[in-house]
Amino acid sequence: MSYFDAASSAPLHPVARQALTASLDEGWADPARLYREGRRARLLLDAAREAAADAVGCRPDELVFTSSGTRAVHSGIAGALAGRRRVGAHLAVSAVEHSSVLHAAEVHEAGGGTVTRVAVDRTGAVDPSGFAAALRPDTALACLQSANHEVGTEQPVAEVAGACREAGVPLLVDAAQSLGWGRVEGDWSLLAASAHKWGGPAGVGLLAVRKGVRFAPQGPADERESGRAAGFENIPAIVAAAASLRAVRAQAAEEAGRLRELTERIRARVPSLVPDVEVVGDPVRRLPGVVTFSCLYVDGETLLHELDRAGFSVSSGSSCTSSTLTPSHVLKAMGVLSEGNVRVSLPPGAAAEDVERFLSVLPGAVAAVRAKLGAPVDGPGASTVREDSLTVDALGKRCPIPVIELAKVFGDVPVGGTVRVLADDEAARLDIPAWCEMRGQEYVGEEPADRGSVYVVRRVS
Amino acid sequence: MSYFDAASSAPLHPVARQALTASLDEGWADPARLYREGRRARLLLDAAREAAADAVGCRPDELVFTSSGTRAVHSGIAGALAGRRRVGAHLAVSAVEHSSVLHAAEVHEAGGGTVTRVAVDRTGAVDPSGFAAALRPDTALACLQSANHEVGTEQPVAEVAGACREAGVPLLVDAAQSLGWGRVEGDWSLLAASAHKWGGPAGVGLLAVRKGVRFAPQGPADERESGRAAGFENIPAIVAAAASLRAVRAQAAEEAGRLRELTERIRARVPSLVPDVEVVGDPVRRLPGVVTFSCLYVDGETLLHELDRAGFSVSSGSSCTSSTLTPSHVLKAMGVLSEGNVRVSLPPGAAAEDVERFLSVLPGAVAAVRAKLGAPVDGPGASTVREDSLTVDALGKRCPIPVIELAKVFGDVPVGGTVRVLADDEAARLDIPAWCEMRGQEYVGEEPADRGSVYVVRRVS
Predict the structure, then answer these.
(1) Does pTM top 0.80 for this prediction?
(2) Quick one: fold of A8-248?
(3) SS3 state at A300
(4) I need a surface site. Which of A361, A447, B134, B186 has the fewest CB within 10 A?
(5) A325 min Cα distance to partner chain B (Å)
(6) Could you report the predicted ipTM of this complex, rounded to two decimals?
(7) How does pLDDT run across A358-373, given as a tens digit for each residue?
């Protein structure tokens, strides 16, 4: 069994396990109490805070432990926005932030605030000058991830932090995906992270707020963690989180090089092993262990099942694997193919043999799914009947069927002719233009329809 | 070392430790994922939910795990209030709720809602008819703890739940102190609890919301835990919480009887072992392991240090042991003596010998603190100068000094004369009337002063 979904959650690091079990006997008491057990718990908590702050690159009194990375993001955004309420109620975030950031932004909008979602390029990165242009006199806060969780693309955090500093806007960095690999460089103001992403236990996030950043914690008052994280401290887990962060950091440079080579193999070889694949994300500025690709004419959920049966645990941003029936907002913002999407995120220690086995299994798995769906194997054939314009009714059909239906009839129109695909699946909006790009055909545009939309494609070759 | 502060946090139960370490290898993956590791995590989570729901007495789909008891309370109150926004914005809580409830009530008030804090009697219990009288047509929610965390008094939850049901108001029960001992009886609507109170690990709370209760989760959207508890699930800790709840319940009846006998010893013998002590809380309707008493002329913090040095870890509601310089809101609401306050809360398994040793150590510890403070050893003596009215200036002096100053000069006024104590310590407002009650003297009342207040006492014997 090869677990290739470290970006969701990493298996517990041996150091975390050891620290956790060792501190269960010492860390259960209330660190606010003055008696022996309380003082002992407090010492553990203080030591963990020092270690975590050192790894983050901040002062211990700037860092609090939260109950998850999501909580760190929610509390960080709410507190920073409230702290700068007088400046204004504008929030700037990248369009490819983690859902915890985007959901916090939605709450801010629902409460009367305004939000700018800064676009990304096709690799998933924001342009620093584009981000800077989104900052306004009433911008209370800006948020940018250190690296994207779905495609691994690293963001230009230091440049954006510089632009924010110049504009007098605090920048919150969601460092969930990168903190295990190293400090976030640049002049950020707030930073959030999640321990189970670096092999620490679940139940621990961290939020750093630089001195001088205006911050007003929201929600009911609570004395714990400087009033920034309500609820009894989970000290054994905090100790384990700090210990494992230190441990993964000690191996980070070496392990990053090793994983980067493995993901490079996947990046380089998948397009030749599997026809009609788009590898997405920045080929260079990227997390060491993450590689993402999408496969034309493939149902992501079925592919994940196939890979699971073959012993590989990966995730997908395809709409059919989400409960919302929409493709991942990240793929959408990048404008890349979403169907048959696979994210491989290697945990530290992932073996080269397992990556090789994955590469040997993948072509068959994709072919099996395509065969089941009746996907076209060749390019557009020449039909006997050729019409200038054809309409495909794919209403009620889910990804990847509308694209398959398009491909099947595409050869029936002559060069210069158009195919109109009527579809109400959200993924079509992303995948039909992506198909055009992959096939070198012209995507004319989208037209409204009584139900769904019509996507118009012109045959140019 | 005897740890007698289980009401703050109980040492990890052996079953919790075992379940936690056993599930570290199985429960780290994302339970929302469809691959093997995710399905395994989901199975653990589902089984824990079933077990916890059985212990609570609700359906599994009515129960979510939160990151702490505090979070369960905050989310429960916010969600229930928002769910019944159309009914009104009135919240009824008892005056002796846990701070998590009271802080949530403060946030509600700050947002324009109204709050009624229902008074308690001298034992710390609400009167069901008094609670019912606080319910109004615009009451969105009522909150009542199952038992008080500082004095152990059990609340008449079933009666209050009945009154709430009749008024059509949902009742949220904070069962943090009692869930390990048994289900909360009565027709409650929401229930919150905290695992580390019953020997489970930190980082796990639970929130039950009965079907049919209007509930609108607040804060940024999150798909986990039915949208009611944001953040990645801490499954090993959840498994440990559920397993230990089952384990403590299996021993609850027997252990309750044993601890009740031990706390009864303390209740009965402390007043004869230590002069000028008030044992507080209901002598019968109370938690098995909790007993609280206050000692006249004693500085709570110093007493806690003395007891810590003697090997006993207890807590205190005295103002001098809190960061706010005010006595515990519970003691205040009960109108009992707050100085020299000691809460003994025995963990399951507490040994009779340790309780006996505590009883043998306590008198010396109290006497040592009193001697340090120069507390009067006898009743009011007869001074040669007797004046009809004396004023004691205790400005700037902290609990228990104002009461000691009062006692020192009290013999200097004749029967019928008054002593006026000028003090700006919050505890004086509680402790001077309490002193009068213990001494059988008349508390005349409080008068405003330029700084602090004047507390007037008339000598009647």
Answers:
(1) yes
(2) Aspartate Aminotransferase; domain 2 (3.40.640)
(3) helix
(4) A447
(5) 14
(6) 0.93
(7) 999 999 999 999 999 9
